[in-house]
Amino acid sequence: MDAHSRGRADEIDPADQWVLNPQTGNYELRLDHSAGQSPTGGSHSGTTGSSTRSAARPTAPAEAPVPGQRRRRPADTDTEPAADRGGRVPPQSRRKRKQGASRKKKVLLWTGGTMAFVLVGGAVGVYALYNKLNSNLDVVEVVGKNKSAGFRKGEAFNIVLIGTDKRTGAGNAGYGDKNSPGHADTTILFHVSKDRSNATALSIPRDLKTNIPECQVKDGKEIKTIPAESDVRFNVSLGQNGRDPGCVMRTVEELTGVEVDHFMMADFNAVKEMTTAVGGVKVCVEKAVDDPKSHLKLPAGESVVQGEQALAFVRTRHSFGNESDLDRIKVQQQFLSSMIRQMKSDDTLTDPGKLYDLADAATSALTVDAGIGSLTKLQDLAGELAGIDTKNIAFATLPVVDNPAEKIKATVVPHPTKAPQLFAMLQSDTSLTEVKKKEQAAKSAQANAQAALLEGERATAAEVRVDVYNGSGIQGAAQATLNWLQNEQGVLRSTNKSNAPEKAAKTTLEYAPNQADQARALADMMGLPATALKQGTADAGEREPMTLVLGSDFKGAGVPITGPAKAPKDLEKVAADKQVCAK
After folding, report:
1. Can you list the positions of beta strands (E) in 411-516?
2. Which of 26, 179, 463, 518 has the CA that lies 20 to 30 A from 205?
């Protein structure tokens, strides 16, 4: 129940207790947290049911209550009194609760600080403390974005979650590099599906070499233009040269081809405060950890971490895997999955005190764009996400390879075929958690439409011969397709024939009647529609190849021309409902 229902939203903390006043026989809200029982009730003899329950959390930031004072609930209030921290309701005032009412009022509180974002259910305390929590938010106006827009209803939308390593601010001074303006230390592109049934959280490595486009930032009343940079680390898209989170948004858009609607950003302190607010987050490690650099010390198996220990867990690079940033990302994804489960657990949802602390910590840590720069807009956003099951929230990392330009490997670049495939999945709103089902449905639909043309035997990959021409207008498309065919599909008898004589609107595959089995096999691999297959009249020679011309509909090597995109082969991902032990 929110405080507006009690009639004193500006003064009453919804987490406070209802206690029996033996003088009046009414249950009243006790606002004095320092005393075990108020003077009026402490010496009354012969009373029952008047023992005081411990206070849940501090009162709202209004006038200071008088010690021992009680405020009577208005007689005309047609709502039930608040439950205490144990979930109990004063017995004389119980009313029948509408089933699921409070659970339907979901509040989404995000924090990107070292990637900690959470789904929080139950709006207890948010309405009464709206002004305080709303004023906690830091808002940045992104130049070129609609500052009044919330999110696209009825469409998929994307949010960039940023964890900055900026050392200034409360709780951050002890981590060195005090004067740094901060970097995009951790970045997640969070894609929410059109039907709101699933979400994909794509981690972008901070050491990824990429291009940062020109961006504009607002400096007071002036707008400054920050020039573009080529072949630099992704993490300099924030903080460096005066870049703001809007520059990160534009960098992600250029990298992925996905329109980014909003950003949410927080710093190191967010992880400490959020994990403390919920009483800790469960983590698991395969072997004992004792890292003198991050000060992380954990026994093998499961542990509960919070505060500094939680921050050490998500920041360590020397305790897991090969001590790379890519392995650190895996650990962070496991941590975030566990944190989401904790946020959605009954331990949190039924505890008004935890919800208040969580709301206060999250909003205090959060910087957002103007499009979602109020608690009301975040609540609207929450309503869109409330129905997503944790099993349908998938974490994945952008597929990368070592930077071939470096002798000493320090940075990475996008995988030439797997990265475009994953980007295409986001662009086509295909869920990583439902890919197999969607692929099967697409294959069934394609099979029905192309039954006459594509029925029959398929050649093996080793038997397929094809020359690849680039008519797409995309530089390197033929070579990328050749690499994909040879390295991932086993089509070794394929050749890059460079550019086609002219640009092609559609991808086509020309083949001879006696190559139909090869054409069917290649069509299956590439997701070619029946309209792309062009059969000649004369049979081909024994070693004569088919001709594949990539057209303007080409989206990337391995990306189907039609139908939903396929997940890259061997893509590592984890669903938020799974407990995984860090290795």
Report:
1. 412-414, 465-470, 493-499, 508-511
2. 179
- The answer to whether 161 and 270 have CB atoms below 8 angstroms apart is no
CA gap 265, 162 in Å, rounded: 5
SS3 519: helix
- 214 HSE (CA, 13 A, CB side): 4
Length of the chain: 583
Neighbours of 316 (CB within 10 A): 21
80 secondary structure, DSSP code: P
- Distance, in Å, from the CA atom of 7 to the CA atom of 275, rounded to the nearest integer, reads 32
Biggest distance spanned by C-alpha atoms of the chain: 107
Interior/surface letters 162-180, b for 16+ CB within 10 angstroms, e for the rest = bbbbbbeeebbeeeeeeee
SS3 of residue 427 by DSSP: helix
Q: pLDDT tens track of the chain, all 583 residues?
A: 433 333 333 433 333 344 445 555 544 444 444 333 333 333 333 333 333 333 334 443 333 333 333 333 333 333 333 444 344 444 444 444 444 444 333 333 333 322 233 333 333 334 456 788 888 889 999 998 876 666 667 789 999 999 887 755 454 444 445 566 678 889 999 999 988 899 999 999 999 999 999 999 998 889 999 999 999 999 999 988 999 999 999 999 999 999 999 999 988 888 888 889 888 999 999 999 998 888 899 999 999 999 999 999 988 877 887 778 888 899 989 988 898 888 878 777 778 788 778 888 888 888 999 888 888 888 777 777 778 888 899 999 999 999 999 998 899 999 988 898 899 889 888 888 876 566 555 555 544 545 445 567 889 999 999 999 999 999 999 999 999 999 999 999 999 999 999 999 999 999 999 999 999 999 989 988 888 899 999 999 989 999 999 999 898 888 887 755 677 778 888 888 888 888 8
- 511: Cα separation from own chain's centroid: 45
